[in-house]
Design a protein that fits this description.
This protein has about 150 residues and is an alpha+beta fold. The chain is about 30% helix and about 30% strand.
């Protein structure tokens, strides 16, 4: 075997190992990704029942109902809404009309069962994904209150 052929085999073996390592890394990353959806995204692209994802938007005014440790509320992007059920302790800053990101699964009845709720930390903060979703829908602009209606 000539030096040139040996070098070619060595390069091919290295490329094969690199490809296998890349495939393993991408497979591991794909299993741990949590996709973000707004209520409008769920209407446009349905999610498989039982798939974990993040749901973000605004807590609809007048929608929070507490029953012991279980809290039910509605997340909206001012176009569509999704009912949410959460059992546990809500963040101190959770309230109606504010931005929220929840993690969990969609049940067969269209109810989002959250296992964690993240709320804003001051009056000017809005989760980036939620703000982007509201901006895309035309209901949010920088410095405006989220319930100000469509941007002009």
């Amino acid at each position: 075997m000539t030096r040139k052929k040996r070098r070619l085999y060595f390069i091919a073996l290295g490329m094969l190992a690199l490809g296998a390592a890349t495939a393993l890394v991408l497979s591991a990353i794909g299993d741990s990704l949590l996709y973000f959806y707004s209520p409008t995204d769920l209407e446009e692209r349905p999610v498989a029942e039982g798939q974990r994802f993040r749901l973000g938007g605004l807590v609809e005014e007048g929608s929070v109902e507490k029953d012991g440790e279980t809290v039910r509320f509605v997340v909206t992007d001012l176009i569509h809404t999704v009912p949410v059920a959460f059992t546990g302790i809500l963040p101190d800053l959770f309230r109606e009309g504010q931005g929220v990101v929840t993690e969990g699964r969609l049940s067969g009845a269209g109810l989002f069962v959250a296992d964690s709720v993240l709320a804003k930390h001051d009056e000017t903060y809005m989760p980036k994904e939620v703000a982007d979703s509201l901006k895309d829908s035309g209901y949010w602009k920088e410095g405006a209150a989220p319930d100000a209606g469509p941007a002009q």
